[in-house]
UniProtKB/TrEMBL annotation:
This is Mitochondrial import inner membrane translocase subunit. It is found in: Mitochondrion inner membrane. One of its GO terms (molecular function) is metal ion binding. It comes from Caenorhabditis tropicalis. Heterohexamer. The lineage of its organism: Eukaryota, Metazoa, Ecdysozoa, Nematoda, Chromadorea.
Amino acid sequence: MASEQNIQTFRDFLTQYNLVAEHCFTSCVNEFGSRTVNAKEESCANNCLDKFLKMTQRVSQRFQEHQLLNAQANGAAM
């Protein structure tokens, strides 16, 4: 059971990773005439990923705060 949950968690992670990579690539990489990534594209991709990571961290913090408040409210109600 735990192994299946670990596999599903990993699949979810890979799905999210692929979505972010695709989003940042399509938003930032526009020049296909060169084999190298130019500075503007690299900066855009780094900022895109940084924003996603910060947003994910923020959402996780808020979720934890919400769960804590719910647990406290349920404990006070009992």
